Structure prediction request, 780 residues.
Amino acid sequence: MRAAAPLVHNITNFVVMTPTANALLAAGAAPAMLHAPEEVAEFAAIASALVVNIGTLTAAARDAMVLAVRAARDAGRPWVLDPVAGGVTAFRRETVAQLLCEGPAVVRGNASEIIAASIGASAGRGVDAANGVDEAAVHADALARRIGATVVVSGPVDYITDGTRAVEVANGVEMMTRITGTGCTCTALIGAFLGAGLPGLEAATAAMVLMGVAGEVAAQGNPGPGTFAVRLTDALAALRPKDLDQRGRYALRLTGTLAA
Amino acid sequence: MRAAAPLVHNITNFVVMTPTANALLAAGAAPAMLHAPEEVAEFAAIASALVVNIGTLTAAARDAMVLAVRAARDAGRPWVLDPVAGGVTAFRRETVAQLLCEGPAVVRGNASEIIAASIGASAGRGVDAANGVDEAAVHADALARRIGATVVVSGPVDYITDGTRAVEVANGVEMMTRITGTGCTCTALIGAFLGAGLPGLEAATAAMVLMGVAGEVAAQGNPGPGTFAVRLTDALAALRPKDLDQRGRYALRLTGTLAA
Amino acid sequence: MRAAAPLVHNITNFVVMTPTANALLAAGAAPAMLHAPEEVAEFAAIASALVVNIGTLTAAARDAMVLAVRAARDAGRPWVLDPVAGGVTAFRRETVAQLLCEGPAVVRGNASEIIAASIGASAGRGVDAANGVDEAAVHADALARRIGATVVVSGPVDYITDGTRAVEVANGVEMMTRITGTGCTCTALIGAFLGAGLPGLEAATAAMVLMGVAGEVAAQGNPGPGTFAVRLTDALAALRPKDLDQRGRYALRLTGTLAA
Prediction:
């Protein structure tokens, strides 16, 4: 990815803009955050990939998202969806349902968000996962097949599926749930790997392993969450492919549904 | 609060979204930031408490705030108001006056903001307090009685009043005024303690003591403001009730007005 | 500047609000971020200076910017423009062209942004400079003369011109391009020095030297970008005029065009 330095267009939530931009820079990508309906289509066609995150959704942002993803698709650019708290309100459920029809390459959320995206109904409260990854895996498989995308369930062990193949990533630390924006950053990194040319399953796996290993490095010495967040950015910048080869803990298998 | 892990709905300003979310996580609460008029009422009824902060106010945000506070009130959920720079422009004075009629459990601001909220006229310039806490105390008492809420004046010694009883909190360090968002974070923490079930005066006292002690811990060794901000988050995560019992410096008394 | 403690009004992008506010506080200024069309004109006349940054531009923000800069001008307050990614979309080109007609005291951007501002056409992709500072200098001179402002081209050696005199600032480190918001922070600091009473060329030089030296201090020991960002804020707070006198590396000369 560092060689490609993909330009990643983010229509993302206001809570995570700063840490997301810094994480993308640390990982070697070029972040751009812009969300005006007047320009998103023009820019989405220039960028290497698009990241859509509904955390601080508004009606104007939803319009911009639809314009942008259609322009990205028309220009052959991949895009990734983060359906933050996607099942919690009717406004979010409708927005997620609409965006899922627009051909994302990857969808990433926690267990509750992925279940909500798959079944179109409420699950969880706010941004926390009220469901387990295992419970969400079958819904992730179904969603992946229905929309022809890669679906990522974040959790203690991440589950990544394209409906046929699944990858489980065991990297990461609990502290990552104690600071804001780690999930959103994973999604942005998936966008960066998509922008660098990786297909959905590979991009998602690379991003989840990178973020997980960075979290493990940052957690050394058991720092508080403020220090951890700083070190996480440091780690993202310092890690190299060989580190991920050595420290990555992931396994490919057929999806549970198919294997059964 | 860590046992309750209250879900805290924030309609807050864009400058402090990231540090506020991290502070709430560090203190054991679950933050959610969402502000679309299409969904705030639905979400406010789900959350344990609501935080309304007018720092980067817009007309759309004002509409969302009114919808949210009414939904919170109807659902029996407490809410806290931070009237950032509330006396500085006509738009802010009108918004603050409107929100004060909607039954906040707590109002927190600096001396100039609380005087402006109480008298409905300009005081101070921007986010800095041009008035002293002593000067604001009588206005805080009057405001508390008028709207039936707890009112907090932040300063070197914080003044917290419900119109009858007052608490003074002496914790905190001057460095807290040198980074952005410490006042807003206090307000968010008040929201978290309200969400955990504490009444207004107790929630405000707990939040101001927690934040003040965390500031004292973070200031050890006299770091620069960047390092201080990181350690402040670390301290919020590390502090336990017994630390606050040992280090909290606060005293209850009858309000100045009544005692006179 | 610390004595003046200028109140700096920012209509700025959502990615950099937190670090910009902290940098202004560290440097001794009083930041205020507000952008509602209902109040920006009123506030711009109160503040010492205005900073306009189009990073996360929207139509509403553009309207607010125009209202604010006119009010600032009418009140005799200087303002500085940061045309982030200004050449990349038609929406940005039109906005920049409109704002350049409203009398900014200073315009600061990277080489691609300044070329785009000067020639009114696209240059660069996103926020990264695709052009060199040398290439941009002649365009900066022309722009400075056309609009009667000081123009700053950020880069390894910054180029600051009022169309007659030019200053080159050699301070700064490459790491500053690896975290988000350093350019935007430079612009905000220019606003702060304008607010403290310095004329355009002097304000821009002071800001670029301050930021460059702070970057050099923060880069000692070669930290990762997370740690670097924290130390940058620390350094901005710690530096004093004598440090800048000792460490500043800049030179005044006639502009290339005139000297030729």
